[in-house]
C-alpha cells in the first residue's frame, strides 16, 4: 500500500520503518523540509516528503502528532488528508504537552475530536502501545496486541491487517465513541498485553472512573522529561 505518515518522532518514525520493512511504500513528513528527515532516506521503502504531498492519494494516512497541533493544521494538509482512503490517528491528549483542550477535558474522545477537525472518519490505532514496545516487541512470544477503534467495515479490516503485518495482534476496541477506554490513565494504556489481556482491560474500564483516568494522565507534569527518559529504550 501507499502509506503517508505525518510525524516522524518516536511513533511515526517507528511505524515508517516497520511498515516499509513490511513492503509498503511509505512517505514520511514532519513540520519541516523533507531534507530534515535524511536519516530515513537511507531506509528502503521510505521517501521523506512535505506533509501535504506525503498523504495525497495514499491508501493510508497516519497522523502521529502532539494533539496541540491538530487545530493548526493547514487547509492544504486537511484537503490532502481528504484524498487518503483511510486516516489513522495515533494521538493522545496530554495537557502537560498540549495545554488544556476544552472538549477533551469535557470528555470528547481524543480521536473523535481529531475526526471532527479533519471532517472525515479516522481510526485510532497505535495510541495504546508504548513506542519502545512498538519498535522492539513485534512478533514476541507471547504475541502482544494493539487496539483498533473506529467504524466497522473493510477499512477497519485494513487497519487490522497493518497491525498484524508489523507483529501485533489487532484488538477491536469498538467505534471511536468507545475509544476513551484506550486513552492515557486507563488499565490497558501503554501496557505490554496480549489480545486477551487487552480485551479484559477494556471490559474493566468504567465511565465512573474517568476522573481517575484523567488524574493518572495528568500526573505527568514534565512531559519533555518523560520523553527524554523514553529515548534510552528506543
Ligand atoms: N511516545 C509514545 O510512546 C507514544 C505511544 C503511543 C501514542 N503516542 C502519541 O502519538 C503522537 C506522537 O507521539 P511521538 O511520541 O511520536 O511524538 P514525537 O516524538 O514528539 O514526534 C512528533 C512528530 O510530530 C511532528 N510534528 C509536530 N508538529 C507538526 C506539524 N504541524 N506538521 C507536521 N509534523 C509535525 C514533529 O516534527 P517536527 O520535528 O517538525 O516538529 C515530530 O516528528 C502523540 O500524540 C503521542 O501522545 C505516543
UniProtKB/TrEMBL annotation:
The domain of life is: Bacteria
Question: Record's Pfam families?
Answer: F420_oxidored
State the InterPro entries in the record. NAD(P)-bd_dom_sf, P5C_Rdtase_cat_N
Please list the residue ranges annotated as the Pyrroline-5-carboxylate reductase catalytic N-terminal domain: 2-93
Q: What is this protein called?
A: Pyrroline-5-carboxylate reductase catalytic N-terminal domain-containing protein
Source organism (scientific name): Nocardioides albus
Q: What is the lineage of its organism?
A: Bacteria, Bacillati, Actinomycetota, Actinomycetes, Propionibacteriales
Amino acid at each position: 500500500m501507499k502509506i503517508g505518515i505525518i510525524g516522524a518522532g518516536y511513533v511515526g518514525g517507528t511505524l515508517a520503518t516497520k511498515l516499509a520493512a513490511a513492503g509498503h511504500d511509505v512517505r514520511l513528513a514532519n513540520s519541516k523540509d523533507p531534507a530534515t528527515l535524511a536519516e530515513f532516506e537511507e531506509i528502503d521503502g521510505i521517501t521523506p516528503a512535505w506533509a501535504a504531498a506525503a498523504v495525497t492519494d495514499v491508501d493510508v494516512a497516519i497522523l502521529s502528532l502532539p494533539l496541540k497541533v491538530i487545530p493548526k493544521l493547514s487547509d492544504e494538509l486537511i484537503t490532502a488528508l481528504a484524498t487518503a482512503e483511510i486516516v489513522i490517528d495515533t494521538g493522545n491528549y496530554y495537557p502537560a504537552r498540549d495545554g488544556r483542550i476544552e472538549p477533551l477535558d469535557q470528555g470528547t474522545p481524543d480521536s473523535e475530536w481529531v475526526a471532527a477537525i479533519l471532517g472525515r472518519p479516522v481510526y485510532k490505532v497505535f495510541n495504546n502501545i508504548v513506542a519502545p514496545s512498538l519498535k522492539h516487541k513485534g512478533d514476541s512470544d507471547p504475541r502482544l496486541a494493539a487496539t483498533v477503534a473506529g467504524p466497522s467495515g473493510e477499512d477497519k479490516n485494513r487497519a487490522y491487517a497493518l497491525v498484524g503485518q508489523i507483529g501485533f495482534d489487532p484488538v477491536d476496541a469498538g467505534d471511536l465513541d468507545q475509544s476513551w477506554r484506550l486513552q492515557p490513565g486507563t488499565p490497558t494504556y501503554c501496557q505490554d498485553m496480549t489480545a486477551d489481556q487487552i480485551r479484559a482491560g477494556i471490559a474493566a474500564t468504567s465511565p465512573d472512573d474517568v476522573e481517575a483516568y484523567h488524574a493518572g494522565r495528568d500526573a505527568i507534569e514534565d512531559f519533555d522529561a518523560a520523553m527524554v527518559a523514553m529515548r534510552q529504550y528506543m
